[in-house]
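User: tokens in, sequence out, please.
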């Protein structure tokens, strides 16, 4: 639980949030700032691009802010800013990957957490503004991450594997280990449907792998939630934002994952009840109040029972 006493016992943690700004459709910076602020965290935006609406709306406008990012970074450098977390998502151009690496170098202190959501695509396809060059740049960028949060499509793209709708346990363990070997200490793959699950008992999963620095021990978590046959844009941004906030308040990784998944499930339920068009995203406004509540230990926190044999 993120207690009110802990929120008041120290200055608010700070996050450098490097994402696009979409005018309509809940996601990216509007989501990150809202969620992190609700969790008692100061989110400082470094916009990568300006869109009229997120990329699932036909005819969206798109403005690349690479040049402006360079100016902002240079200005911040003059007064020595440091952040407790650096959290990047949607990039507006391949050149911005180098700017994110520069920001990590300039604005980190010894305890800074670096979370990279390698936004590239979903449902087996690249997003309209992404290409093979961006995929290659993202492979380079995740080397600097402590934690990455790709969905199943993005994990496949990063590993140059065929995209798939389902995946078996042995394969996803191999993918987690390969991604971790690229640099990050923890890898969290979202939107994974395990092929071992029967259709009547299908589950949407988050599979996580943690390899703490200076140790050879690997830990794997399989975090389940009920399968919901609905697509809501922006859930990846919500997941990574809640995860980042939870980690800043010193929650353990599986607890932070479970908190993010519970929040998304509650948001989808409320969105369905409200009749909100799915393309608009989850109705955050109706569920933010429960974001910092207690989290019971349920089936949403499970170690792979045979993970010792999967190292």
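Assistant: Sequence out:
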């Amino acid at each position: 639980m993120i207690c009110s006493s802990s929120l008041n016992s120290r200055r608010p943690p700070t996050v450098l949030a490097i994402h696009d700004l979409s005018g309509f459709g809940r996601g990216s910076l509007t989501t990150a700032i809202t969620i992190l602020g609700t969790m008692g965290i100061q989110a400082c935006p470094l916009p990568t691009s300006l869109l009229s609406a997120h990329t699932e709306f036909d005819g969206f406008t798109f403005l690349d802010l690479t040049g402006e990012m360079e100016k902002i970074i240079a200005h911040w450098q003059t007064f020595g800013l440091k952040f407790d977390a650096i959290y990047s998502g949607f990039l507006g151009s391949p050149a911005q990957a180098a700017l994110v690496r520069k920001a990590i170098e300039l604005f980190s202190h010894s305890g800074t957490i670096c979370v990279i959501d390698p936004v590239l695509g979903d449902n087996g396809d690249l997003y309209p503004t992404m290409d093979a060059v961006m995929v290659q740049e993202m492979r380079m960028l995740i080397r600097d991450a402590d934690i990455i949060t790709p969905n199943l499509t993005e994990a496949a793209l990063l590993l140059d594997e065929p995209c798939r709708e389902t995946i078996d346990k042995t394969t996803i363990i191999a993918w987690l280990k390969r991604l971790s070997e690229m640099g990050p200490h923890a890898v969290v793959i979202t939107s994974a449907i395990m092929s071992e699950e029967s259709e009547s008992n299908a589950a949407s999963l988050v599979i996580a792998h943690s390899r703490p620095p200076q140790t050879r021990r690997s830990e794997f978590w399989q975090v389940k939630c009920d399968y919901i046959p609905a697509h809501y844009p922006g859930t990846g941004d919500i997941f990574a934002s809640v995860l980042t906030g939870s980690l800043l308040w010193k929650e353990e990784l599986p607890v932070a994952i479970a908190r993010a998944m519970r929040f998304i499930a509650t948001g989808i339920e409320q969105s369905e009840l409200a009749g909100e068009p799915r393309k608009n995203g989850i109705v955050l406004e109706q569920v933010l109040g429960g974001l910092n509540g207690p989290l019971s230990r349920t089936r949403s926190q499970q170690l792979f029972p045979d993970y010792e044999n999967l190292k």
